[in-house]
Amino acid sequence: MIPETIHVPVNTMRQFMEEVFTKIGVPANEAKICADVLIASDLRGIESHGVQRLKMYYDRIKTGQQKAVTDFEIVRESPTTAVVDGHHGMGMVIGTRSMQMAIDKAKQYGMGSVAVRNSTHFGIDGYYARMAINQGLIGMSFTNARPSISPTFGVQPLLGTNPIAFGAPTDEDCPFLFDAATSIIQRGKVEVYNRIDKPIPPGWVTGADGKPMTNAAEILAALPKDKAALLPLGGPGEELSGYKGYGLATIVEILCASLQTGAYLSDLLGFDKNGNKQPFMVGHFFMAINIENFVDLETFKKTTGDILRTLRESTKVPGEDRIYTAGEKEYELEHIVPLEGIAVVPSIQKDIIAIQKELGLDYPFQI
Length: 367
Ligand SMILES: NC(=O)c1ccc[n+]([C@@H]2O[C@H](COP(=O)([O-])OP(=O)(O)OC[C@H]3O[C@@H](n4cnc5c(N)ncnc54)[C@H](O)[C@@H]3O)[C@@H](O)[C@H]2O)c1
Hints:
alpha+beta; Hypothetical Oxidoreductase Yiak, Chain: A, domain 1; two-stranded antiparallel ribbon; 11 helices; 39% helix
């Protein structure tokens, strides 16, 4: 019986994750990268993609849906572009190496973009856009994902939650970093609701009959059977412009699949026609823009900072005392989470205990 949420110091959790990845066969330097992406998510308050996902990667390596050792192959390259085959290795390793390639190309030639095939779940999209920001560039990152979103007027889950991340440096410490799924909620959030046994608000998920579904466990069971679908940004039908979210998710699918002759839509289910587990064949697309090819960096940062400040300082809805710009909430949490530790809810503690037992690890923190 695990009664309550505990808080684990960030460094302890990082060390534990590295140890888990290493024990299961990920080379030590790559285990560090994998842990860093997960920790970045917890630090930014995106609980669906941090320690909560550790068991998912662990299970997928065990079942052979992804490989612990990443064979990163550049299959096509020009000065500004590349196509990479990740051979079902670790998505975070494939993602960081591909984004760094895009950044290096942009530094040299003004722009760089890299399309990736045969990758696996790479965590938060914003991690990769942030890499570009940290090096003084604009960064964009896109990934497709397991089929979850139905098209407008449809009920079949076909598109992934296909997030878009866009980041730019500004003259403030907090960068502009937009990082969100193109569905109203991403799949991980359904998992969070399931873990805390909370109903999903009506309007986020549709059943095969076109009616809203609200039970998170039922939704998770129904999604792979085409009996439930997440709705695109804007919701069902055309009234609140659901077709705009549908269009954005399709753009991400095209960038992540069509530029690398890769898998798309239902190919990413993780099961073959006989219901056997198979790799997810995820695709990514990364882009970096060297600001200095357009304008000097300080001028760009000042203009961007002025845009963001104008938005934040504009007239507020009565009763609201703050307007945010993208990335602000997460940036603030990055300074709070290290003080409080990473929250681990009881169901994740159970996952951790199971992993610790299987791998024979010493308990790095007491549960
Ligand atoms: N790897 C995958 O397959 C996959 C798929 C889907 C989502 N994800 C990740 O899940 C994470 C969460 O996605 P999500 O769709 O739940 O995000 P979300 O709905 O929480 O939106 C987050 C974004 O909105 C901004 N934001 C939040 N409130 C705001 C406000 N009031 N004003 C202005 N901006 C505001 C945040 O700064 C952030 O950029 C992301 O990191 C995403 O990359 C990953």
